What does this fold into?
Amino acid sequence: MRIFALPLVLVFFACVEATSPPLVSATITAGPMVGSVTHETARVWVQTAEEAQLHLEIRAEGKDWMGFGPGGVHLTRENQFSGFAEVRVQPNTRYQYRFVSDHAELLPVSEQSFRTPPAPDESGSFTVAFGSCAGSWGLHPDQPIWRAINNLHPDVFLWLGDNIYFERDTKEWEDVGKMQARWKTQRAMPSLQPMLRRTVNLATWDDHDYGPNNSDGTWRLKEESLKLFRNYWANPDNPTSVPGVMHSYRWGKVEFFLLDTRFHRSPNKAKNGPGKSVLGETQWAWLEHALKTSAADFKVIVSAMQVLPDYHDFESWKLFPSDRQRLFDFLANHQITGAFILSGDRHIGELLQREIPRLPYPLTEFTASPLAAGFGTPPPDEQVPSRVPGTSVEGEQFGVLRFTTPQNGPPYVELQAFHADGKPAWKARRIEITDLGAQGD
Ligand SMILES: [Fe+2]
It folds into this structure.
């Protein structure tokens, strides 16, 4: 592609302090990647080959570039020359952006834009894609699936964990230098760049981008792992008083709750009981309060591992019976409307539905995995009573949610799974807000 043939070199003319090493040039090695974009602020991440002081500039289509001010980012060796800048934006607007220093452009502007959401109480249609498990050990180590995802022009992409794999043979998770190198390699993947540059990217993690297989809150390098995660993503801030990658994100009348199912997790083998938790008490308190007070029509609960299934013994919330029951009871006791679940991790895809006592609608869970890694064969529908028949997917895949707010009638979301080549795996399934316990407007 032409863009990769262009020199991505910026000459710095800026004066530097006499004591600082001279900054001669900055070469972008990954991104830019659009991070959290709300109706008020936008974060854009970038990584360079060497130390750099960059500024993020934006312009609404057809308008002039908005100049310097807030929006700077200093990329240093300490943060692997990666980080994000933040600027203020208006709702419901498409912006072009560029990283500059002394007004020199780093990349052609045509490739770089994002759309801001409407204000939280306003309608607006948008598309979300999601997936999990992106490694180099599958059929396609160069991960061509990103081109298929980008071709659908999603507004948001949700990374549901195992976003990289610390390699098993060399136990990369034991060595911070190797962990850094793994992140750097994945983020620079050529097939990924076009999607990163035009899509809001939000992430949670799972075991393989956190530590060893099936790791939990006892993992000794979890603080280092969290530091790396924060270097490589530009999520909304963690709203809790404890460390972790949990956050919520609002697009118009839809709110996403991305859970951290690793940092505070009890070991899978811990004795069942109220003390055995996926989320830990502080994260629970945040989630419950956020769900109870959310004015969004749709409330999308995002968990790396599956929540609903009872039919398998891989990792899932089934291993944490009191936490799972707490979630079901909370939804029912507070009559939370508009909720459904996204998950990954399983290396198969499926759509599940389960009746929850006293909840006035079946709870839906949409699982998509892997993006690029080994995959399994889903058991047949007759062995999975909670599966919506015909929705199992084998192979590299991703999920799509199209939220629509029509002029007349209730808002709805269409769910659809896609294979890595961009072909639909099953026909889109539509869920109206009134199917999720809510009154129509
Ligand atoms: Fe995985």
